[in-house]
Amino acid sequence: TLNCLVLGSGPRNVFSIEIARTKNVSALKELIKSKNPIAFRDVDAANLVLWQAPESLRCEDNAFKETIEGLNLQDDHSLPVRILSRIFSDPDAECLHVIVKAPGKRTALS
């Protein structure tokens, strides 16, 4: 299970994706899009931008919003065929794992 957050959302909007660690980044993007059909209505799953969240970032942390806003998020360099187990070796069930953005969307947290 990977915990995901659409950039611009707060910790109460974190959602979980059930996915095998043997799947790849492309499969993760498809599941993220299917779990958020309204947010990503006009976006192809392949065009979603994903970042790995900082390790040990818990959603209940007081500094959650500030931590996300302070990240230097560069373009997504995760190849669609990269296997998730190579990115997430042992994800903590209570931490944020993936930050998601649709291309062209604003990035400030509300």
From TrEMBL:
Keyword Transcription regulation applies: no
A GO cellular component entry from the record: extracellular region
Pfam family of the protein (one): Crinkler
Domain (Crinkler effector protein N-terminal) ranges: 1-101
Source superkingdom: Eukaryota
Keyword Transcription regulation on entry: no
Keywords carried by this UniProt record: Secreted
InterPro entries per record: Crinkler_N
Subcellular location: Host cell; Secreted
Protein name in the entry: Crinkler effector protein N-terminal domain-containing protein
Organism of derivation: Paxillus involutus ATCC 200175
